[in-house]
Amino acid sequence: MKIMIYATPESKGHHYIYFYTIVHAIQEKMPEVDIVAVLPEICDEIKCRQLLIEGINWGTKSFIEYFKLMQSFLKIVKDEKPDCIHIQCGDNFYRFFGLGFRRLRKYNPVITFHHMRRSKLRDISLHCIFNNIAYGIVHTESLRRMLLEMGINNVMHIEYPQFQKIKCPSPTNAKKNLGLSEKVPVLLALGATRDDKGLDILLDALNLVKYNFQLLIAGQESSFTESYIDKHTQKYAEKVVKKLKFLDDYEFAECLSAADFVILPYKKCFDGASGPLGEGVIQGKTIIGPNHGSLGDIITRNHLGYVFEAENVQSLSKIINLALTETQRHDSAYVNYQRELSPELFISRYVALFEKVTAMRKE
User: Fold this and answer.
1) Beta partners for residue 277, in sequence order
2) Pairing mode, if any, of strands 2-6 and 286-290?
3) What is the pLDDT of residues 212-263, one digit of tens each?
4) H or E segment and range at residue 70
5) Are 214 and 189 in contact (CB under 8 A)?
6) pLDDT tens, 139-161?
7) What does pTM read for this prediction?
8) Are the C-beta atoms of residues 89 and 114 closer than 8 Å to each other?
9) Whole-number Å distance between alpha carbons of 74 and 209
10) Are 15 and 7 in contact (CB under 8 A)?
């Protein structure tokens, strides 16, 4: 039996750990299976057979480049004849309506989708893609229900787990190391400062917060630069600590440990799982996020904290004021969701799916 994995582990962070975890899960739980990975470049840390498609942008917006990529991939598939193909990030295929997937159907493709957006064209694209694959994986129950309502049934929900294994300092030491006061609540905006993550909404909302707080902004500069942040935090500059860089595992864990609240001011265009949400829940933090889509559903259904009206500065400031005045307690729903974030559950569900799909190939 052979499973082919199409992945981009050179994208450090969640792409790499996702790839690493699934390869090792197959090796441990399905030792009889041959694994071949199709990658843009060699990944020395992963011990499996690796085939390369080089010189092409895997996230291209060019139809001509996408056509070349798919032709190269289809040739590899035809030569290797896998029993199952796992494409670990299907998000790049939406704009091309899954062109080429029909020729992959007999190899039982399983595609993981990390984010989804709705529109007439996007819905058509989703139907085209799902009609030509064995299963699609989504990381939130909200997205699974959305697809079922669209008449797409070959979908499975596998919760995005908490991958971090590193031992982090205590909240007291983490705050001290980062130059934060232990006596004032810490609001954490974690991750790259991309536009869709809504840092601009948060910075404006904090101008209207009347209770004392500290803001820790940690992650790589992206859409919102340090100069933008400085300009929009002038009224409360003394309350802001910035760590604008790519965070290694220890730094990521340290920032989470220092936080009292993980703030997710994501915009309406974002609908998918959030790494900072999961990591924050594992460390017992209170989550503040938008009331729309998957994030709103996860926070509300699992009693993780507070929701506000997405992209509404007034609503976010009101919720932060409320959160800063209430005692934070986590109930059984919160604890149950912490269990759902176990990497062991993630692995067992993927392995069960691979076993099911490779059995389909034998039939």
Assistant:
1) none
2) unpaired
3) 999 999 999 999 999 999 999 999 999 999 999 999 889 999 999 999 999 9
4) helix 63-80
5) no
6) 988 899 999 999 999 999 999 88
7) 0.79
8) yes
9) 55
10) yes
